[in-house]
């Protein structure tokens, strides 16, 4: 009886070892397949380029000259611009789906326009997509710090506006499509300013187009 129990225990241990070895081998196989796919495909995040920006309005309304401690009125910034964004898929074997992409303008970390949604897009291998969204910000309240920095930028003759893109991407290999990943792009745009110290800050002329060809910082 004792010998039978010992024999059964030994068989059970051998079975557990085989199950463990099978699970370990399966995990190693999966990791090897993932590694080989990565080596073969070499997935690379998309490139974004800010080609140009046409500025229709960039005007600061300052109320600093009219003190009103009881009902203070904030300084406001009005912005209207159209930008041309180019997205490049550098992968030769991977397609990219773009979902819920929103573009907006930011200055000194403060969003100064509404977010404009871009249409859902599929980008094939080594394909290029061009978007030309309008960005609007009507009388956006800005902090006193932004007002002070804008005055300094006015002295230097230009202002750095960041065009930002937020959204989701999916990768496509053959018939397989991945889950959604967050994508973020930050595109600097240098805009020349004009205006006298007494008349405020604004763009040099209506509908000024700035050729930029500026590479964006992209995170996925």
TrEMBL record:
Q: Which Pfam families match?
A: LEA_2
Which residues belong to any copy of the Late embryogenesis abundant protein LEA-2 subgroup domain? 84-183
> Looking at the keywords, is Transmembrane helix present?
yes
Membrane topology type, per the record? Single-pass membrane protein
User: Does the record bear Repeat in its keywords?
Assistant: no
Please give an example of a GO cellular component term from this record.
plasma membrane
The protein's UniProt keywords, in alphabetical order, are:
Membrane, Transmembrane, Transmembrane helix
Superkingdom of this protein's organism: Eukaryota
Q: Where in the cell is it found?
A: Membrane
Q: Which parts pass through the membrane?
A: 19-41
- Biological process (GO), any one: defense response to other organism
What is the name listed in the Swiss-Prot or TrEMBL entry for this protein?
A: Late embryogenesis abundant protein LEA-2 subgroup domain-containing protein
Which species? Answer: Canavalia gladiata
């Amino acid at each position: 009886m004792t010998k039978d129990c010992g024999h059964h225990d030994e068989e059970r241990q051998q079975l557990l070892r085989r199950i463990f070895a099978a699970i370990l081998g399966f995990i190693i196989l999966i990791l090897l397949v993932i590694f080989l796919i990565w080596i073969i495909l070499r997935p690379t995040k998309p490139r974004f380029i800010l080609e140009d920006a046409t500025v229709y309005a960039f005007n600061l309304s300052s109320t600093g000259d009219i003190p009103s401690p009881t009902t203070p009125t904030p300084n406001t910034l009005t912005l209207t611009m159209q930008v041309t964004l180019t997205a490049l898929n550098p992968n030769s074997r991977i397609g990219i789906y773009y979902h819920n992409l929103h573009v907006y303008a930011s200055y000194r970390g403060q969003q100064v326009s509404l977010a404009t949604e871009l249409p859902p897009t599929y980008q094939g291998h080594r394909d290029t997509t061009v978007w030309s969204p309008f960005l609007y910000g009507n009388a956006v309240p800005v902090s006193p710090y932004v007002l002070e920095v804008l005055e300094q930028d006015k002295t230097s003759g230009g202002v750095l506006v960041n065009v930002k893109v937020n959204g989701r991407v999916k990768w496509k290999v053959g018939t397989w499509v991945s889950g959604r990943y967050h994508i973020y792009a930050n595109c600097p745009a240098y805009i020349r300013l004009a205006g006298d110290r007494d008349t405020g800050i604004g763009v040099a002329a209506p509908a000024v187009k700035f050729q930029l060809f500026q590479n964006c910082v992209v995170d996925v």
